[in-house]
Design brief:
Elements lengths: L1 E6 L12 H7 L12 E5 L2 E8 L6 E4 L5 H10 L8 E4 L20 E6 L11 H15 L4 E4 L3 E4 L2 E11 L2 E8 L30 H18 L6 H10 L7 E5 L7 E7 L5 E5 L2 E5 L3 E4 L2
Parallel strand pairs: 1-4, 4-5
Antiparallel strand pairs: 1-3, 2-3, 5-6, 6-10, 7-8, 8-9, 9-10, 11-12, 11-15, 12-13, 13-14
């Protein structure tokens, strides 16, 4: 039996105190918390509320306004509270971060998660963010979304960005920061540059999705898919699986933020070390940093 916890205590400069009622009132997507039976408890010397999660493979910790869920995860990991596949969900982040440590806009109603990954070579290498991207995209597909991976760490649905992934290693523990636009997304005019992929969200207009249940479904499928299939993959099999979900495969793209900036190339696939293979007029090149956009 696993548990859903709500962190009640404040952690200075990282997370504010909260209650199940306050989270429920933060956004309509959290209303389903009213259906759970909560009891007060202490866990890792922290005051919390808890409710059982039957038939779920891990614990989930909910918290109030935080700097970032990865910061909360660091504190929890120091207290030895997080097991593999356990996760933290924050209702809002003040200092969320994405690729190249860029700030991530984090209003209420979306998923801001930090999840402890299994301590295996599968994630702890250059292919790690693509591996978790493959699992997340596969889980979103099970929910009926046309999800794809945009190298190096974005998730697209119908060619629009709905989320991103950031891996951080602290004290030998690997955490995946996962952000998903569930109910809202940044308007186009707020994107950082003219070539950024337009954003979207998982829910349709006038629809409300239960955030906790969406996250449970995603984690449950990622956990199942990893243990039933992916853990046995060779590097070649993983790359092949990622390439089947890779957006713009075979299409001409424009390169940004690498040593090939302001050049174009055709996406050919993923290299053994997680780079993006591009065919150019003078041969194939591999980039390991930066980003790409569709060729205008």
């Amino acid at each position: 039996m696993h548990t859903c916890f709500v962190l009640h205590d404040q952690i200075a400069n990282i997370v504010s105190e909260t209650t199940p009622e306050q989270i429920t009132n933060a956004h309509a997507g959290w209303k389903s918390l009213e259906e759970l039976s909560w009891k007060q408890t202490t866990h890792g010397n922290l005051a919390m509320y808890s409710s059982d999660l039957p038939y779920f493979p891990a614990d989930i910790y909910l918290c109030g306004m935080c700097s970032s869920t990865l910061d909360v995860a660091r504190v929890f990991n120091e207290k030895h509270l997080l097991k593999e596949w356990d996760s933290i969900l924050g209702i809002r982040q003040q200092s969320g971060r994405g690729q190249l440590r860029r700030a991530w806009n984090s209003p209420e109603g979306n998923i801001y998660a930090a999840m402890r990954l299994p301590s295996t070579d599968f994630f702890a290498n250059e292919l790690g963010s693509l591996a978790i991207g493959f699992l997340l995209a596969s889980a979103l597909q099970k929910l009926g979304h046309n999800a794809q991976i945009k190298w190096p760490n974005d998730i697209l649905v119908d060619d629009k960005k709905v989320g991103g992934i950031l891996l951080e290693e602290r004290a030998g523990t690997l955490m995946a920061g996962i952000g998903l636009n569930v109910h809202s997304h940044p308007p186009t005019e707020h994107l950082r540059n003219e070539w950024a992929v337009p954003a979207s969200c998982l829910c349709k207009k006038e629809q409300t999705l239960p955030i906790l249940q969406v996250w449970q479904t995603l984690v449950d499928y990622m956990h199942f898919c990893y243990n039933a299939q992916v853990v046995q993959y060779t590097t070649a099999k993983l790359i092949s699986s990622v390439e089947k979900q890779l957006t713009w495969l075979g299409r001409e793209v424009w390169i940004h933020g690498s040593d090939l900036t302001n050049r174009s190339g055709r996406i050919m696939g993923i290299s053994q070390d997680g780079g993006l293979r591009l065919r150019q007029s003078d041969g194939e090149r591999i980039i390991h940093s930066g980003s790409v956009s569709l060729h205008p």
